[in-house]
Known about the structure:
Blueprint: E1 3-7, H1 9-13, H2 22-34, E2 37-40, H3 46-52, E3 62-64, E4 69-72, E5 77-81, H4 86-98, E6 104-109, E7 112-117, H5 124-131, E8 139-141, H6 145-148, E9 152-160, H7 162-172, E10 178-184, E11 191-197, H8 202-212, E12 217-222, H9 228-233, E13 236-240, H10 245-248, E14 253-255, H11 262-270
Parallel strand pairs: 1-2, 1-12, 7-8, 12-13, 13-14
Antiparallel strand pairs: 3-4, 4-5, 6-7, 6-9, 9-11, 10-11
Amino acid sequence: MKTLYVTDLDGTLLNTKDCINPRSIAMINSLVDQGMTFTYATARSLVSASVVAKGLSTKIPVIVYNGCRIIQPDSGEVLFSVDFEKEEQEEVKSFLTKQGISPLVYAFINGIERVSWNPQYENEGIRRYLQSRKNDKRFRPVNMEEQLYEGNIFYYTCIGEKEKLLPVYEKFKDNPTYRCTLAQELYREEYWCEIMPAKATKANAIQILKTMWNCDRVVAFGDAINDIPMFQIADAAYAVENAVEELKRYATGIIADNDHDGVADWLANHAKW
Length: 273
């Protein structure tokens, strides 16, 4: 039976220094060369993921933006995408404006992927995020709200204090049109509230990729609550030791933490193809 092995990046395959241990890269690349079907599913963009996963062999498409896109990494070809409808964009814009929240808005504008934000409303968390992605050509500062919400939008990220973001989460978390998550940033104080189309989940994208590559089974690895849907659809799922307790309840087993090659070691000892 052909198995698709899918790992999260941040907090799972990436160590606490936001990179992959060289030992993990060498082990995984060797297994891929031998025939293992392996990829990653991340909340990051392909641009950001490609930087932190440099050197990692991914011969099949990758899942980015929490399932909003499936992309062939070597060519940049988009194989699957989910965007907001215009009325959905307007509903999110209206509510965020009323709450006094200025998000990072991910959209395709004239066919080009852009991330728009208003520098007038930057906070420490937003500045840190922008600083960590210097020279990223997607970033587009704007001064007017109309510009902020231009294009075919597929993702919103609100960064700030938990209390300020809670009303956004409560507004959209149970609405079947949207998928909304609220979580504390790894190794930081600020929270991220992210709003996506309902079909934008790692689980949905994995099912599509599984069909594309004629796989029979899925084995998943993760650390955070946004990995729960992919754990639920996987045939087996493993949480790294540093994972949140909520995710561990859905895990088949617990493996070594992200600083100690947990994913790579499990694959080396158990992966089959």
